[in-house]
Structures are given as structure tokens and as C-alpha cells.
């Protein structure tokens, strides 16, 4: 028997204007996020992605329409409390999120501010550091970490808060390919363990592990569906300011030539085998 997963976030006709502006940054948005899902929110610069991210934990509240967290409107005190307790944001620049001088102390900062007992904080910090691969550097000064390690530290701090949902706002945009892979490996591990995730990004190569994608353009939702269905659109993505990843472009050409199946996105070794035929 299939039971419907718990609804965590629901947007209903959400629109948002910054004070003093006449043009909405977000326009009539609707979608739902359920427990255990991994959703990617995509769009070009200026599409409203980061503004939307701030609505998920009530840093911003809708000008019109509503954002509900566990059924409570974030315009209410109870809704804001639930949003900030259950939805954690990881931002673009890791240096802006590090508050302590030592790695393990930084991870402990959030739970300490919640008044969590010391013994439980120690367990949370240990778990978060192990999941993110930072346990061996737990005693190091935070300034000695690489960019990828700093962003993993930000994720570890979010994990230690034990949120129902983690939102990553362009969390890999300032990282090199190695750092991006490190973060995506951690996210895959978290999702496999049941964590609910929202990835705000413009990098299509990062959506292949997501369950669902939402595309924004000029503040409006213009498309929603699976990563595969989005990627096979090819050059049609340019209309929304999204660039087709080179790997997907190669796959599209091989598919059009009848060398690969249209059913699933293949792995790199399958592409190499097809090219060598």
C-alpha cells in the first residue's frame, strides 16, 4: 500500500515585490514539496531563484498569495517559527556562513543557540562531520579549509540543526569542479538517507539525481517535470537562459544518430562505447 508522503512546503499563487518596486520578482507561483523529495529550482540570473529560496524559511514572506510550511502560513508567527525551525538555508558564499574559528565549534554553533544539551550536540556534530567527510579535520582552524571544504562545513552546520528540509542556494557556484563534486556527493548521501532537499541552481549537470525540476523565468514558473524530460529539450532550454551541459549535448547527438536509447540518460562509458562503434 502506498501512502502519500508528508507535505512540507506548499506555495499558492505566491507573488513578491521588493519595497518601492512596481514589477514583481516572483509571480503567481504554485508547487508542493513532500518529505524525502529532492527538487531543483532552475533559472537564469534574475529569474527570482534566490528570492524564492528566502521564502522557504520565512526570511521573506509573500506580498500576495501564500507560502505554507506544514500547513501554516509563513505570514503568521507560528508559520515563521515552523519555517525557521524546519527549513535550513545554505548560501552561495561559504565564508559568509562560518562563525567559529575551529571546524567542530562552527558545526556546534547552531544547536548551541537552540539550547540543545551538550551530550546531544556532541553526537550531532560528530554525525554531521562524518556525513560531510570533515571528521578528520574537526580540530583545524576554519580558515585553513579549501573552498569545497568550507561549503561542506556549511552543509554540516545545517545537518547538525536536524532540519526537515535543506535548501541550497547556488551552493556550488563559487567552487571548482572538485568542490562541486564533493558537495553533490554529500547531497546524494543525504537524499539516500531520506533528507528533503531543494537545490537552487543554474547548472543543469547538477539535476540528474533530483526527483523533479521547476524552471523559473522572470519570476514565473514556466516548466515543471523530471530531470530527463528537461534535459532532452536540448536547445529549447536557451529560451530560459539555461545552457545544455556538454555531456547531454553529446548524448543528444548520439541519440539522434540512433546510437543510444532515448529512454534514459546514459553514463559516460556508454557514450564512449557508442562513439567507438
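Sequence proposed for the structure above (277 residues):
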Amino acid at each position: 500500500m502506498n501512502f502519500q508522503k508528508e507535505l512540507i512546503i506548499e506555495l499558492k499563487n505566491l507573488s513578491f515585490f521588493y519595497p518601492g518596486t512596481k514589477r514583481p520578482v516572483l509571480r503567481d507561483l504554485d508547487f508542493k514539496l513532500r518529505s524525502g523529495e529532492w527538487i531543483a529550482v532552475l533559472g537564469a540570473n534574475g529569474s527570482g531563484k534566490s528570492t524564492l529560496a528566502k521564502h522557504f524559511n520565512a526570511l521573506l514572506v509573500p506580498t500576495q498569495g501564500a507560502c505554507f510550511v506544514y500547513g501554516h502560513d509563513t505570514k503568521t508567527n507560528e508559520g515563521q517559527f515552523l519555517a525557521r525551525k524546519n527549513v535550513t538555508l545554505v548560501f552561495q558564499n561559504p565564508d559568509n556562513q562560518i562563525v567559529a574559528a575551529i571546524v567542530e565549534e562552527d558545526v556546534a554553533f547552531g544547536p548551541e543557540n537552540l539550547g540543545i544539551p551538550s551530550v546531544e550536540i556532541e553526537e550531532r556534530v560528530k554525525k554531521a562531520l562524518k556525513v560531510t567527510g570533515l571528521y578528520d579535520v574537526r580540530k583545524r582552524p576554519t580558515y585553513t579549509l579549501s573552498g569545497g571544504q568550507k561549503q561542506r562545513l556549511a552543509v554540516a552546520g545545517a545537518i547538525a540543526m536536524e532540519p526537515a528540509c535543506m535548501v541550497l542556494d547556488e551552493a556550488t557556484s563559487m567552487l571548482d569542479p572538485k568542490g562541486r563534486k564533493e558537495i553533490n556527493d554529500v547531497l546524494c548521501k543525504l537524499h539516500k538517507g531520506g533528507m528533503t532537499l531543494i537545490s537552487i541552481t543554474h547548472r543543469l549537470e547538477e539535476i540528474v539525481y533530483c526527483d523533479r525540476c521547476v524552471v523559473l523565468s522572470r519570476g514565473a514558473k514556466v516548466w515543471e517535470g523530471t530531470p530527463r524530460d528537461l534535459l532532452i529539450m536540448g536547445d529549447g532550454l536557451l529560451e530560459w537562459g539555461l545552457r545544455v551541459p556538454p555531456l547531454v549535448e553529446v548524448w543528444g547527438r548520439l541519440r539522434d544518430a540512433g546510437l543510444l536509447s532515448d529512454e534514459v540518460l546514459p553514463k559516460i562509458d556508454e557514450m564512449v562505447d557508442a562513439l567507438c562503434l
